[in-house]
Amino acid sequence: MIKTKIIGLVVSLVLFGAMPMLVGFVPQASATTILDTTNGAFIFGGGGVAVLNEPGPSIQTIALPFSSATAVTITDINAYVGIPSLSDPPSGSVDIGIMATDSSGFPSGTFLFDQVVSLSNAHPIILGLLNWSISGGSTYWLAAVAVIGTDAAWQQNVVTAGPFAYVHQDNVWRAINGFLPEAIISSTPLPAALPLFATGLGALGLLGWCRKRKAAAIAA
């Protein structure tokens, strides 16, 4: 059975003279939201699903599925995970990041990218300036793993229900369909001109090689 808690209070590259010309052809990528389970409810407070790692042991990890149709770079994550007001001590940390999907359709249990974050009962987790690249067309998971001694909660959207996954100390992932843990993931697409940019670099290298070969032949 899943456990719940009550949350309290709320390239660019410049190499040679020709490089700026190539860089100029790379369009500016705009940020895109690839996951938003908040339903516009940004108030930090209310009921939540437990994210904990306490003696006993009593462990629960939560993972929220998402995907992108195309390859993107994740730049920002807001996850509404915090410390319940009645927790003793009122502090803790979680390891939050991205997991791939295993052959059974559940989180792999291993982070592709992650950060350990200290929690608060006053504000959610806010990660920015990320550079986490994922492939298009695959399911990934935003997972929160409690650090030992942490008793936290991931605020849920009490309007929108959907699938997510959880695991206890038995290391068996389980699916649940319920009010979704709240999170927002933003990304930028891979610029379409980058392959052309790489081709340009290759062409410059080939040109340099040809010049060296010609000079060697003249010297001989």
How would you describe this structure to a colleague?
The protein is mostly beta strands. It has a single domain (4-10, 29-190), classed as Jelly Rolls, CATH 2.60.120. It has two helices and 14 strands. Strands 1, 3, 4, 6, 7, 8, 11, 12 and 13 form a nine-stranded antiparallel beta sheet that branches. Strand 12 and strand 13 (173-181) form a beta hairpin. The longest helix has 26 residues, at 194-219. The N and C termini lie far apart (80 Å).
Keywords:
220 residues, mainly beta, Jelly Rolls, 5-stranded antiparallel beta sheet, 2 helices, 14% helix
Describe this structure in a few short sentences.
This protein is mainly β and 220 residues long.
What is the count of distinct domains? 1
Described by strand count, sense and barrel closure, the largest sheet is:
9 strands, antiparallel
Give the CATH class. Answer: Mainly Beta
Proportion in β-strands: over 45%
- Give the structural class: mainly beta
Low-confidence segments, given as residue ranges, are 7-26, 193-198
Task: Work out the helicity level.
Answer: 10-25%
Please count the beta strands (DSSP E, at least 2 residues each): 14
| Separation of the first and last Cα atoms | 80 Å
Q: Could you tell me the radius of gyration in angstroms?
A: 23 Å
Figure out the total of helices: 2
For this structure, the quaternary state is: single chain
Overall pLDDT score: 81
Principal-axis shape: globular
CATH architectural arrangement? Sandwich
Helix and strand element order: EHEEEEEEEEEEEEEH
Might you state the CATH topology name?
Answer: Jelly Rolls
